[in-house]
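Milestone 3.1: sequence recovery, worked example.
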């Protein structure tokens, strides 16, 4: 298993803080990280429709919430 595969595996197992660190630390893998997060978000969003609960470990949701707290353009009207 190569370094790239190990980093992606660590990303899959990481919490939101570690994912952010890996995202910032590995710019060459950012597209893969975004695809992973979007796939998880879509899967959990579909599960939310079935169960009515919000996704727990969504980096995208965490990032959007953090951005909304500091940047007015990310806030919903």
């Amino acid at each position: 298993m190569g370094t790239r595969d190990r980093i992606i595996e660590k990303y899959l197992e990481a919490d939101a803080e570690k994912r952010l660190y890996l995202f910032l630390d590995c710019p060459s893998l950012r597209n893969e990280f975004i695809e992973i997060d979007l796939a998880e978000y879509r899967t959990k969003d579909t599960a939310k429709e079935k169960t009515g609960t919000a996704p727990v470990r969504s980096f995208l949701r965490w990032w959007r919430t953090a951005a909304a707290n500091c940047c007015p353009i990310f806030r919903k009207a």
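Residues 47 and 53 are 8 Å apart (CA to CA). The chain has a mean pLDDT of 79.
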